[in-house]
Design goal:
The complex is a heterotrimer of chains A (271), B (157) and C (422). Chain A is of the alpha+beta class and 271 residues long. Chain A has eight helices and 15 strands. Chain A has two domains: 52 residues; 164 residues, Alpha-Beta Plaits. Classes of the chains: A alpha+beta (271), B mainly alpha (157), C mainly alpha (422).
C-alpha cells in the first residue's frame, strides 16, 4: 500500500511521537523535509511523494471578472453542500463609494457582498455607477497559512498541514468540535452538515496528487487563479512569473499566519 | 517510618488508572498516526482517492480535436471547456450515454455582462444595447469573434 | 441570468446584516458551549470558596465546606456533557485523550479535567470523608452501606494518627487544588483568549476574566445552594457563614467587574480596527445580555446591594445606627444578589461565546444566532444540561450530607463575627 523510507532519526521520532503523551507534534524544518520521502498511491494508483511538491495558489485580483465559475466548480468537485451557507471558495464583490468632500476622507463607504458566494455570478453593484469610486472582485479560499491557526488548535490532530503545502481535514478522525472554524481568521472553514466534521478547501488534494489543477483553477477563464508547484517551477511557469513580477500581499498579515496564498492588486479594504 | 495506608491504596489506584490509560492509548491510537506529523498519515492517501468530477481540459482534445483546434485559435482559448459545459468526468468515461449541457446565452452573459466591478481590460457588453438574439447565432462559442456559417448553425439542433 | 442573481441576492438570508463571510452565517458554537464555561466556572469558584476554609482558615465558612465541595463535584461531573453533546462526532471524543495535540488548548481539556477530578476533588473529598465513610459503612445496611465501604477503598484505620494524616493531606490537596482550579478555568478562558482571529476573544485578559467570573459565580452558587438547602431542611441559616460568603462574593465581584471594565476601557481607548464593530455589537445585538443583564443586573445591582448590606455590618455603621441590617433582610438581599450574579455570569458566558460569533471576522457585519427549541443543541437540551448538575448535587447531598451529621461534624455557633482568622 505504501512504502516508507525512514532513516534512523525519523524512526526514533516516530517512536517518540507514538509513545509520548506529552510529545509536541514534530514540525519538520525545510531542510529535514528535503531529505524525506513518503510514498502513497494517488487516485490513479501511481506513487505520489508529498515531500517532492509544494503546491501553491496565488491570485491576481486584476484578472478576476467575478463569473463565479470557480465557486460552482468547487462545490461540484468537492461535494460541498449547495446551500448558500457553506463554501470552500467564494468570491466577494467590493464597491467603494466616492467620498463626500466635506468629510475630508479619501473614500466613502465600502460595500461588500457575496450573494450565494458568487455561485450564480454577480449583478452590477446596487450603487449607481456615478457614485462608485472603485469596484472589484476578490476570490477567497483557504489561505494555506504557513502558521495555520486551524491546525494549531485542533485538539486531536484531525487537521494538519501536509508536507506538500495543503491543509487537510481527516474526516475519519475529526470529532467535530468546531474549534478550527473559530480559529480561522479568514472564515474558510465550516462544519459539514452531513459529515458532521470540519471541512475546508483541500486544494483539491485528489486532483493535485494526480497532476491535475484544482477545480477552481481549471475553470477560471482569465487565469486570475494561478496554481503551481514551488518545487518544480518551470522557467516560464505562470507561478514563477507571478512571484517574480507582481507586488503581492497577503490577507490579514498582522495576525502572523503568513498566508501562502498571495494576492496581487489587493485593495486595503479587503479583509 | 511506615507509609500511611491511605497512600498505599491511592498509589495502587493511581497505578491502575494510569496503566489503563496507557494501554488504551496504545490500542486506540490509529496505526499511521504520527508518521508524518501529529496526524494520521493514511489520511493523505484516503483524501487523494476522492473521485474526480471535472476531467480537465486536456482530456477533451483526444475526441474533440476539431473544436480543440478552433478553440485555441480564438479569444476563448483561456477558458475551460468544462466551465461552459459543466463537469465532464462522467462524459469522458462514457461519452455515448453521459451527455453534457450546451450552454445558452445566460452563460455568455454570466461572463460578459457589463459590470462596473469588472476590470477594464475585459470585454463586456450591455445586453440591452447589444444585438438581439441568442449569442451563438452570431458568435461561435468556441471562437467567439467568428460568425457561425449558416449550415453549421442549423446542424447544431 | 440577471433575474436569477437578483433572486439569490435578495434571498441572502434575512438574519445577516452587512457582510459576513458566507461560512460565518451559521453560528458554530451553540448555547451548549455557553454552558460549558459556565459550569466549569461554577466548579472552580465553589472549590476556591471551600479552600478558604482549609487553607485560609476562614472558619466561619465551615458549615458550608462540604456543600461547596459537593457542589464543585456535581458540577464538574456535569461539565463535559455540553461539550460532548455539541461535538459532531461524540463517539470520537476519546481521541482527545489518545492523541492530544499539544498545541491545542482544547486538547488539554481531558487532562486538566482528569487531574482536577481525580487528584483534586475526589482526593480532597476522600480524605475529608474517609472517617465518615468508615463509620457510616459500619452502621448502614444494604447497598448504601456497601457503597460507603467501597468508598473507603479499604482503609478503615480510624486511629488518631490516621485521621491526623487525613486532615494534613486534605490541606495539602487544597493547596494544590487552588492553582488547579485556576488552571481548570483559566484554560477555558485561554480557549477563547487564544483565538487571535476573533478580536473579541483574542485577548490576554481573557483567562483572568474567566477565572474571576468563575470565582464570582461559584461563590454565588454556594451561597444560593446553602440557603436553599437550609430552607428545604428547615434548618436555621448560619448568619456568620452567610456573611462571610457574601463578603467573598462582593470582593470577587468587585475585582471581576473592575477587570472586565478595564478590558472594555482599554479596547475603547486603543480603538483598534475592530472597535467599531465591537461597539456596535455591545449596544446592538448584545444590548440586552451585555449591558442590561451582565453589567447592570449581574454586576452593578448586586454590588450595590451587597456593598450596602456589608457596610451595615461594619462597626462604623453599627455605631451610627445602633443596629446592623436585620438578618431577615440580609438573607433576602444575599439570596437575591446570588441569583442575580448567577444570571449575570451566565449572560457573560453568552456574550463571550455567542457574542464572539455574531460579528464577522471581516468586521463588516452581523449574523444572528437562531436557537431552536428542540434538537440536540436547542433550548431543551440546554435546560436539561443545566439542571443535571443540580440533580446530581441533590443525590450527593442525600448520600453524603445527611441532615444529622455524625458526631464531631462541628456546626458552628451563630452570630460569631466572621473574621479571616489567621
Amino acid at each position: 500500500m505504501k512504502q516508507t523510507k525512514t532513516n534512523r532519526r525519523e524512526a526514533l521520532k516516530k517512536l517518540a511521537g507514538l509513545a509520548g503523551a506529552v510529545a509536541v507534534a514534530p514540525k519538520t524544518t525545510g531542510a529535514e523535509e528535503a531529505l524525506r520521502r513518503y510514498l502513497f498511491k494517488n487516485g490513479v494508483g501511481e506513487d505520489y511523494d508529498p515531500f517532492d511538491h509544494k503546491w501553491l495558489m496565488v491570485i491576481d485580483i486584476e484578472r478576476c471578472i467575478g463569473c463565479g465559475m470557480c465557486v460552482r466548480a468547487c462545490k461540484a468537485e468537492n461535494e460541498v453542500p449547495r446551500d448558500p451557507l457553506h463554501f470552500r471558495t467564494w468570491v466577494e464583490q467590493y464597491t467603494i463609494k466616492k467620498a463626500d468632500v466635506a468629510t475630508g476622507r479619501i473614500e466613502g463607504e465600502t460595500i461588500v457582498r457575496s450573494p450565494n458566494g458568487g455561485y450564480d455570478g454577480f449583478p452590477p453593484p446596487e450603487v449607481p455607477e456615478e457614485e462608485i469610486l472603485r469596484s472589484f472582485f476578490v476570490p477567497k479560499l483557504c489561505n494555506l497559512c504557513h502558521h495555520s491557526p486551524c491546525s494549531q488548535v485542533c485538539p486531536v490532530g484531525a487537521t494538519f498541514d501536509t508536507p506538500d503545502g495543503a491543509v487537510l481535514v481527516d474526516y475519519e478522525y475529526c470529532m467535530g468540535c468546531g474549534f478550527c472554524v473559530q480559529a480561522c481568521p479568514y472564515g474558510c472553514r465550516y462544519m459539514h452538515p452531513e459529515r458532521h466534521t470540519a471541512d475546508k478547501c483541500t486544494l483539491c488534494y485528489h486532483r493535485i496528487t494526480r497532476g491535475l489543477k484544482p477545480a477552481c483553477v481549471e475553470v477560471c477563464p482569465t487565469q486570475a487563479r494561478i496554481f503551481g508547484d514551488l518545487k518544480h517551477l518551470g522557467p516560464d511557469d505562470p507561478l514563477r512569473t507571478f512571484i517574480e513580477t507582481k507586488k503581492a500581499q497577503s490577507l490579514k498579515p498582522h495576525l502572523g499566519t503568513e498566508p501562502r496564498v498571495l494576492y496581487a492588486g489587493l485593495d486595503k479594504e479587503v479583509r | 517510618m511506615k507509609v500511611p495506608p491511605q497512600i498505599v491504596r491511592l498509589l495502587i489506584v493511581t497505578v491502575v488508572l494510569v496503566g489503563s490509560y496507557f494501554v488504551a492509548k496504545s490500542l486506540l491510537t490509529p496505526p499511521t498516526f504520527g508518521e508524518l506529523g501529529w496526524y494520521r498519515a493514511a489520511a493523505l492517501e484516503e483524501l487523494a482517492q476522492h473521485k474526480l468530477t471535472y476531467a480537465g481540459k486536456q482530456e477533451c482534445e483526444v475526441c474533440h480535436d476539431d473544436i480543440w483546434q478552433m478553440f485555441h485559435a480564438g479569444k476563448h482559448q483561456t477558458l475551460s471547456c468544462e466551465g461552459c459545459h459543466g463537469p465532464a468526468m462522467r462524459h469522458v468515461d462514457d461519452p455515448e450515454n453521459e451527455h453534457l449541457l450546451k450552454p445558452g446565452s445566460d452563460q455568455c452573459l454570466r461572463c460578459h455582462q457589463q459590470n462596473p466591478s469588472r476590470p477594464d481590460w475585459y470585454t463586456q457588453i450591455d445586453p440591452e444595447e447589444h444585438l438581439e438574439g441568442e449569442c451563438i447565432e452570431c458568435h461561435i462559442p468556441h471562437n467567439p469573434t467568428e460568425m457561425p456559417e449558416e449550415e453549421e448553425a442549423s446542424s447544431e439542433q | 441570468m440577471t433575474n436569477e442573481v437578483l433572486q439569490t441576492a435578495a434571498q441572502t438570508l434575512p438574519h445577516v446584516s452587512g457582510y459576513v463571510y458566507p461560512n460565518e452565517q451559521n453560528v458554530v458554537w451553540s448555547v451548549l458551549i455557553v454552558l460549558y464555561p459556565y459550569i466549569t466556572g461554577l466548579v472552580a469558584g465553589a472549590f476556591i470558596l471551600a479552600s478558604l476554609v482549609r487553607v485560609f482558615r476562614v472558619t466561619s465558612l465551615e458549615p458550608a465546606y462540604r456543600l461547596c465541595l459537593l457542589t464543585s463535584l456535581a458540577f464538574l461531573l456535569g461539565a463535559p456533557l455540553p461539550l460532548l453533546f455539541h461535538l459532531g462526532h461524540p463517539e470520537r471524543c476519546y481521541e482527545a485523550m489518545m492523541t492530544p495535540h499539544m498545541t491545542s488548548p482544547m486538547a488539554m481539556f481531558g487532562f486538566v479535567y482528569a487531574w482536577y477530578l481525580m487528584v483534586v476533588l475526589l482526593l480532597e473529598l476522600w480524605f475529608d470523608y474517609r472517617r465518615d465513610f468508615v463509620k457510616w459503612g459500619r452502621v448502614t445496611p444494604g447497598w448504601k452501606g456497601w457503597m460507603y465501604r467501597i468508598f473507603t477503598l479499604g482503609v478503615t484505620d480510624l486511629s488518631e494518627k490516621a485521621l491526623h494524616f487525613d486532615h494534613q493531606a486534605s490541606k495539602v490537596i487544597t493547596v494544590i487544588g487552588i492553582p488547579s482550579a485556576i488552571l481548570l478555568h483559566g484554560y477555558v478562558g485561554f480557549i477563547f483568549g487564544s483565538i487571535k482571529a476573533n478580536p473579541l476573544w483574542g485577548n490576554v485578559l481573557m483567562p483572568i476574566i474567566f477565572i474571576l467570573s468563575a470565582i464570582v459565580s461559584g461563590v454565588a452558587l454556594c451561597l444560593f445552594m446553602y440557603m436553599v438547602l437550609c430552607w428545604i431542611r428547615r434548618q436555621p441559616v448560619d448568619m456568620a457563614c452567610l456573611d462571610s460568603m457574601a463578603r467573598a462574593l462582593f470582593a470577587a465581584l468587585l475585582v471581576a467587574a473592575a477587570v472586565e471594565g478595564l478590558d472594555w476601557f482599554h479596547r475603547i481607548y486603543e480603538a483598534e480596527e475592530s472597535i467599531a464593530i465591537l461597539k456596535q455589537l455591545a449596544v446592538g445585538k448584545l444590548f440586552n445580555t451585555l449591558i442590561i443583564t451582565q453589567a447592570i443586573l449581574g454586576a452593578l445591582l448586586p454590588l450595590l446591594l451587597l456593598g450596602f448590606t456589608l457596610l451595615s455590618l461594619t462597626s462604623f455603621f453599627r455605631h451610627r445606627f445602633a443596629h446592623e441590617l436585620f438578618p431577615v433582610v440580609r438573607r433576602r438581599i444575599y439570596f437575591l444578589s446570588s441569583v442575580l450574579v448567577l444570571i449575570g455570569v451566565l449572560a457573560m458566558r453568552w456574550n463571550v461565546v455567542i457574542g464572539g460569533q455574531l460579528f464577522s471576522k471581516s468586521l463588516r457585519g452581523f449574523t444572528t444566532y437562531m436557537m431552536e427549541l428542540g434538537g440536540h443543541e436547542g433550548w431543551g437540551m440546554a435546560v436539561v444540561l443545566l439542571i443535571f448538575p443540580f440533580v446530581l448535587l441533590a443525590v450527593f447531598i442525600r448520600l453524603f450530607l445527611p441532615e444529622k451529621p455524625p458526631a464531631g461534624g462541628a456546626p458552628t455557633e451563630q452570630s460569631r463575627p466572621a473574621e479571616a482568622a489567621a
